[in-house]
Write a structure and sequence with these properties.
With 235 residues, the protein is mainly alpha-helical. It has helices at 3-13, 17-26, 45-55, 66-69, 74-87, 93-105, 113-128, 134-140, 145-154, 156-160, 165-174, 180-196, 198-208, 214-220, 226-233. It holds the Pfam family DNA_alkylation.
C-alpha cells in the first residue's frame, strides 16, 4: 500500500460521525462561512498526528503528498501538512526548495486556520529565515484570507529567533482587515513579541492604537499587568 492510500485508509478507519458534525460547526463549514463546504471525518488532532508519525518515514519526495493535500477531506490535508512539517528540516536542500514552492503554489488547499497555523511557521518561516523575505509582503497584500494568515504566521519563526521587524511590517499591512481570524492572528503574534520584547510590543500599540482591532488588542495585551492592560484599553 502506498503512502496516500495508507494514510487515507488509516484516517477513514478512525472516522467519527458525531465528532465530524461538531467539527463541521466549529470550523464553520456552512453556507457563507469561511470554510464553506469543507468535509470532516471527525478525527482528533492527536489521532491525525499519530497517523502522520506512522507514515513519515515513507515520504521520499514532497510531491508524494499532493493527492492528500488536494483531498476534499480536511483531515487528509491536515496529515499532508504534518508530513511536510516533519520532512522539511531533514530534507535535502533541493527537496526543501521544492516543498516550499509546492506549499505556496498549492496554498488554496491550506484553507483553514488550523492548517495554516500548524505549517506556515515551520515551512514558510523556516525556509525564509536566511533568505529574501519580500514574498511575505506580497502574500500579505493578497485579498485571500488564508494567504494573509500564512504571511503573518510564517513570521512566528522569526519571532522565536528574536527578530520582529517582519512581523511588524506584515501586521501593519493587515491592520485594515475586517476578518476576525486576521485580528486574532495579529494579536497572537504581537503577544508573542511581547513575551520577548515588551518595548517593541508597546511601541506598536502606541503607534497603532487608533486602528488596531479590539480583538487584536485584547490578544496582544493578555499577558500584561492589569494596570497596563487597562491603560491600553482606554487609549
Amino acid at each position: 500500500m502506498d503512502l496516500v492510500q495508507g494514510v487515507r485508509s488509516e484516517l477513514a478507519a478512525r472516522a467519527n460521525p458525531e465528532r465530524a458534525a461538531f467539527m463541521s460547526r466549529y470550523f464553520q463549514t456552512g453556507p457563507g462561512q469561511y470554510a464553506e463546504g469543507d468535509i470532516f471525518w471527525g478525527i482528533s488532532n492527536p489521532q491525525a498526528r499519530d497517523v502522520a508519525r506512522r507514515w513519515r518515514l515513507a515520504l521520499a519526495h514532497p510531491a508524494e503528498v499532493l493527492p492528500l493535500l488536494q483531498d476534499p477531506v480536511h483531515e487528509c490535508r491536515l496529515v499532508a501538512l504534518l508530513l511536510w512539517v516533519a520532512y522539511y528540516p531533514k530534507a535535502p536542500k533541493m527537496h526543501q526548495e521544492v516543498l516550499y514552492e509546492l506549499y505556496l503554489t498549492h496554498r488554496a488547499y491550506i484553507n483553514n486556520w488550523d492548517l495554516v497555523d500548524l505549517s506556515a511557521r515551520d515551512i514558510v518561516g523556516y525556509h525564509l529565515w536566511e533568505k529574501d523575505r519580500s514574498v511575505l509582503m506580497e502574500l500579505s497584500q493578497s485579498t485571500h484570507l488564508w494567504t494573509q494568515r500564512i504571511a503573518l504566521l510564517a513570521t512566528f519563526y522569526f519571532i522565536r529567533e528574536g527578530q520582529f521587524e517582519d512581523t511588524i511590517r506584515v501586521a501593519e499591512v493587515l491592520l485594515t482587515s475586517k476578518h476576525p481570524l486576521i485580528h486574532k492572528a495579529i494579536g497572537w503574534m504581537l503577544r508573542e513579541i511581547g513575551k520577548r520584547d515588551l518595548d517593541t510590543l508597546e511601541a506598536f500599540l502606541h503607534q497603532h492604537s487608533g486602528v488596531l482591532a479590539r480583538t487584536s488588542l485584547h490578544y496582544a495585551i493578555e499577558r500584561l499587568p492589569p494596570a497596563r492592560r487597562q491603560y491600553y484599553l482606554t487609549l
